[in-house]
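URGENT: need a sanity check before tomorrow's submission.

F., can you look over the V-type proton ATPase subunit F record below? I want to be sure the sequence and structure line up before it goes out.
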Amino acid sequence: MAERGKLIVVMGDEDTVTGFLLGGIGELNKNRHPDFLVVEKDTTINETEDTFRWFLNQEDIGSSSSTSTSQRAVLEIPSKEHPNDAAKDPILCRARGMFMAHDLR
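Structure tokens as predicted:
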């Protein structure tokens, strides 16, 4: 959960972004700039990259760990068209290294 006063952003297909918006994530800042982006077939790579960079440079966007240290995290959600390959997922691979085999059962 984001620390008080911090926003969570989402970039993705219409279904994913809509789900987050329905869940309460998604706002317009005082300049009417959204903290979400619906990526469609005609969305350019430059537009996606520029939006991502813009999000990274905003002080009101971030997440907080259980300590007082503020940090940001990027979480990739697999799409319907391209299922997740757990063996290639860097987050899952890293998590596996943090636990013993019997912890994962």
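My own read: The chain has three helices and four strands. The radius of gyration is 16 Å. If you see anything odd, call me.
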